[in-house]
Amino acid sequence: MVVANKYKILVVDDEQDILDILEYNLKNEGYEVKCSNDGEQGLKIAREWQPNLIILDIMMPKIDGIEVCRRLRQIQECRSIYVLFLTARQEEYTELAAFDAGGDSFIHKPIKHRALLSRIKAIFRRSLELEEDDKAPLKIADLEILKDEFLVYQNGNPISLPKKEFELLHFLASRPGKVFSREVLLEKIWGNDVYVVPRTIDVHIRKLREKLGEHYIQTVKGVGYKFLG
Questions:
Q1: pLDDT single digits (tens) 10-43
Q2: 53-57 β-sheet, strand order
Q3: pTM of the model
Q4: What are the chain's domains?
Q5: What is the DSSP string of 169-191?
Q6: Partners of 57 in beta bridges
Q7: Cα(76)–Cα(191) distance, rounded to whole angstroms?
């Protein structure tokens, strides 16, 4: 008997056979699943249905997965949705472009379904652990960080951050003055079960600086980053 759980997953891929097998395997694990073979339709479903996770192919006609993710992150109610990219491409620059658009993780084709299911369980487990961390609002200088609502205000003005950028900012800001290496930040924010390249941290730090200013997060050469409280 399939045991239902609370998580909703949207799969967006232009290959129908991939949609069919992912839908079957995910439903067999108890997830509520919807599928789309088109990026525009996928965005519409995401806005209306509010899934917990989107499994998103990169190479699609009309609009590719990176553009879908970029548009998704511009939608207020979709900022906290976890985006797991699927791709047959192996270049690092593709991975970095996907993270730059607001993606959270990667899995390469051909899909190994047991590995994918394990990754999804790790994502939800990690998300639950982060949700259970201290939820008290952080007020540092002109920043206010509201973890419960995934909102950041600077001088009272709202700043839009994708889920991983927000989690990275909250982690650093809640530990002002402490230096963290890229490897530690990857483990703390993404967890041990999810592989992403260390440069992913640099991409997310750069995006945070673009939105908040250069003076909050300091680079400690040869070591990592720290938040200046």
A1: 999 999 999 999 999 999 999 999 999 999 999 9
A2: 32-36, 8-12, 53-57, 82-87, 105-108
A3: 0.74
A4: 8-131 (3.40.50.2300), 138-227 (1.10.10.10)
A5: HHHHHTSTT--EEHHHHHHHHH-
A6: 86
A7: 26
